[in-house]
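Q: Convert this sequence to structure tokens.
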Amino acid sequence: MTLVKGMAVDNGPRWRHKTADASGGADIAMDALTRMRAYVAVVDNEGFSAAARAQGRSKALLSKYVRELEDDLGVLLLNRTTRQFSLTEAGHAYYKRVVDVLRDFDALHDEIRDQKAGLSGAIRLSAPRAMEAAGMGQSLVDFAVANPDIKLEMSLEDRFVDLVEEGFDLAIRITQLQDSGLIARRLSPFRLVLCATPAVIARYGAPDEPAALAGLPFVVDSNARRRNAIVYRDAKGGTATVPIDGRIVVNSPLAARMAALADIGFVVSPDFTVHDDLSAGRLVEVLPGLLGNDAGIYAVYPHRRYLPARVRALVDHLAEWFRDNCPPRPEAKQVDPS
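A:
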């Protein structure tokens, strides 16, 4: 303990070396956040020079912030040389936790600000191209019109983005959802359909059991979790597989549909992608009900304590839109392609 102007002060970490008046407390908190952000920037950019360029600050200033952070913690976070640096064991542990702390802080700040000022700010959304077939584009247009202060950035691509690493607020996933570190809300159910054109069925025959699928030509969607096999429910309620193969492999349900319509082979597709083709007879479903009905369209977002109000509003909007515009479709009856 030391005495500062008549007040006993604990000689603890540097960030506590000030009197606890309101303005001083705010300054201390901001200093701590600044140092945390500097450390995360250095790690994310793999060096002080790159972090300085990304942050628009000097390398010396970032080095000062990180050194002060290490002094506050009483541990070394980075091993530095003139050419490179590496994280210490404590540095790895601290980085893992501080990223979540800063994300929660920013999300809480956004949530309170949104409550006061209304919905505003930017939303980065990832969605598969097939969502256009479900009409989701119109739902986003409707949301943008209703919320003019929100900037909506939508990335349409047929891959599973890393929401945290790539900075997305929200993603739409068409899947049988597996356990993950993400929060998910089911927007709509859908079922997978096994189908082909009448010409393909006439050429190769309509399979009457799952085993008959082996050896048939397929258009393979590489987005499937088992791209070279069809997973189905057997008579006992368990899961079974049958191997499939095809000379065309695509990473989009829309491209798979186009190939199937060109008489290239059988295809497994979400029902909303081929619904109109089935209704018009351009495609015919085979072995209806084989693939089950437990898939869904999900909105997923990072596991965070405070979800920004604008993102929550978009998720609510999408759930309402899918409920009103994409009701579950009944399973199709087997159709004789002849």
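The chain has three domains: 2-115, 118-190+296-325, 192-292.
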